[in-house]
Design brief:
8-stranded antiparallel beta sheet; Arc Repressor Mutant, subunit A; globular; Creatine Amidinohydrolase; 32% helix; 12 helices; single chain; alpha+beta
């Protein structure tokens, strides 16, 4: 989920400034299908039609007594065959539709999904150790042991890439924010081949606008409309077996915000380059802040220095746990904790033309079950029922009120408040800087592999 908010001391004085695929290749088809195809060649055309099922082995149909019915069956079979081939390249490989609707697993039938951008680790302490990771046989062996996990994350990343590419081309001023979120989520669910807690969306779609930096998604009935002059942060996640891709970008229509977007993208890429095994988290934050605050932007005749939002952070990720314990600051200072081998991180940065500090504001929409919550007895039957819905549909992944509606929950406001009061569920209100300012965000998920650093969510867009 978007950012991890940290508490910072309040300064004494601050200014307020304003479908199943038919088997075509006999060589790779099951033995039963091969035999049936041979039988089909021997059949005389007048002895009856051979009807193919979508997934089951082929069986011979009884001779048709009515010639018209036989012709209709053949026409239907021919039409179905054309429909199935519609999204195929030569050679029988499926291609993505527009808008995207084909599951990623069907696009890569061999089960090998695209690898993200590979970077070498920065030289820390022992230069030889960092340089030798690419060539070390021991590290290569450790890398291979984790290949199944890496492949799951790459599948989630490819679903994320194709979904955001569609949204970037589709989104237009004048659309309702709830319409944008539903289009994105419906597309992502198709591409990830949603299956309960095994595969699906990792957290609600953040579509925070302007001074709101993170954790805003519309609740049911929200009529907010995206405007031409808005700066919107699109932050959403996908997962396979709890392996989460947390990735975000900033979208604008007015080119006057280009410098803000450029600053935050550059800062995020700086943080990614600085990250690595044995690197102290505070060192990453210092490099991010230096790059971020080297940028300025002119808006409406006034010049603003772009500031890192100092109480928002990147974070480590573990299975079914979006905030896994370690924080990656985007300003200097912070903990000297080091990154470790085989850890997953969301490297994200936020830039602002305001104070560079966010606070809770607006109606809450994001919620998440506390990962470490002990057993807590519940007296309200409605609270028990709602907790059962949360456990079944989301587990410890984040959710929103729209998703509770989708899961069939009704009249849950009091029950949700009860769960939050007992700290079984945590609420995550929208995080906002001062009104009138603009904020931007970019984020990628990286894997600290034994041999190299993989920016698994990297695409040709950012």
């Amino acid at each position: 989920m978007a950012a991890l908010k940290t508490q910072i001391p309040e300064p004494e004085h601050e200014e307020e400034n304003g479908n199943g695929v038919e088997i075509e290749d006999v060589e790779t088809a099951p033995e039963s299908v091969k035999k049936n195809k041979k039988k089909k060649k021997k059949k005389a055309s007048g002895n009856g039609a051979l009807i193919q099922g979508d997934a089951a082995p082929q069986v011979e149909a009884r001779p048709q007594e009515n010639g018209a019915k036989e012709a209709t069956a053949e026409d239907n079979a021919e039409g179905e065959k054309k429909k199935k081939k519609r999204n195929r390249k030569k050679g029988g490989k499926l291609t993505q539709t527009n808008p995207p609707s084909v599951a990623i697993v069907d696009l890569f039938p061999d089960g090998a999904f695209p690898i993200g951008e590979i970077q070498e680790y920065p030289l820390v302490n022992d230069d030889r150790t960092a340089k030798d990771r690419f060539s070390s046989e021991e590290k290569k062996a450790l890398d291979r042991m984790q290949n199944d996990i890496y492949n799951e994350v790459r599948l989630a990343a490819e679903a994320h890439r194709q979904t955001r590419k569609h949204i970037q081309n589709w989104i237009k001023p004048g659309m309702k924010m709830i319409e944008i979120c539903e289009e994105l989520e419906n597309t992502a669910r198709k591409l990830i081949a949603e299956e309960g807690l095994k595969a699906g969306l990792a957290f609600p779609t953040g579509c925070s606008r302007n001074h709101c930096a993170a954790h805003y998604t519309p609740n049911a009935g929200d009529e907010t409309v995206l405007e031409y002059d808005d700066v919107v942060k699109i932050d959403f996640g996908t997962h396979i077996n709890g392996r989460i891709i947390d990735c975000a970008f900033t979208h604008t229509f007015n080119p006057k915000y280009d410098k803000l977007v450029e600053a935050v993208r550059d800062a995020t890429n700086t943080g990614i380059r600085a990250a690595g095994i044995d690197v102290q988290l505070c060192e990453i934050g210092a490099q991010i802040q230096e790059v971020m605050e080297s940028y300025e932007i002119d808006l409406d005749g006034k010049t603003y220095q772009i500031k890192s939002i100092r109480n928002l952070n990147g974070h480590s990720i573990s299975p079914y746990r979006i905030h896994a314990g370690k924080t990656v600051p985007i300003v200097k200072g912070g903990e000297a904790t080091v990154m470790e081998e085989n850890e997953f991180y969301a490297i994200e940065t936020f830039g602002s033309t305001g104070k560079g500090v966010v606070h809770d504001d607006m109606d809450c929409s994001h919620y998440m079950k506390n990962f470490d919550v002990p057993y807590v007895p519940l007296r309200l039957q409605s609270s028990k029922a709602l907790l059962n819905i949360i456990n079944k549909n989301f587990g410890t992944l984040a959710f929103c009120k729209r998703w509770l509606d989708r899961a069939g929950a009704t009249k849950y406001q009091m029950a949700l408040k009860d769960l939050c009061d007992k700290r079984i569920v945590d609420d995550y209100p929208p995080l906002c800087d001062i009104k009138g300012c603009y904020t931007a965000q970019f984020e990628h998920t990286i894997i600290l592999r034994p041999t190299c650093k993989e920016i698994v969510s990297r695409g040709d867009d950012y």
